[in-house]
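ESCALATION

Customer reports they have been waiting on this structure for their group meeting. Please prioritize. Original submission:
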Amino acid sequence: MMISTDKATKTYKLGPNSVHAVKDVSLNIKEGEFVVIVGPSGSGKSTLLQLIGGLDRPTSGSVKVHGKDLAKTGDRELTKIRRETIGFIFQNFNLIPTLSATENVEAAIAHRTKHDPAHVREILESVGLKGRVSHLPSRMSGGEQQRVAIARALINKPALILADEPTGNLDSQTGEDILNILKELNIKQHKTVVVITHNEYAEKFASRVFVMKDGMLKDAR
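Update from on-call: job pushed to the front of the queue and completed.
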């Protein structure tokens, strides 16, 4: 099983009150699945993705990736898992503005990976950025910047791709183009892909769709 959560809960203290951002989520995702989690803003989607990606730890319950319980994993090993096993894609691209597309991808290369400029260029070209590899983010469209972010997520050959609202800052056609790239990676490279979004058109790319509301997975279809 690629991802397995058992009653995963994330609680935040707000003064005397407690808020359950994620509540008792049990979820199993097999290798090679393309899973879409939809829901309104504030439903807990991003928090759940952060738990799965080891960017945060559950207050209770367990979150396992490739059998590793992230809640019980030390910081050094957790960093290694995030770098080598998981590729992250974010709504705001999170590119370094002073670096070119190539340099942004190179900045994510794990220490264990030999720096191969030809490989970096190949990945950028594979996501449709031939001729744009030397451009700064400011000289690229939103869709192009997200393609750089996808290339950066792929550079360490992760088995799992986690995408947090990857189409949120894009028009619908560009958003579909980005989802097509992720679907192609899922089919051709057998990447496990988890996308959280409020855009319902993303559902047609999924092997399974979950609906999140009030911190819980309320429905699956």
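Sent to customer with the following note: The helical segments are 45-52, 75-85, 101-106, 117-126, 142-154, 172-188.
Escalation resolved.
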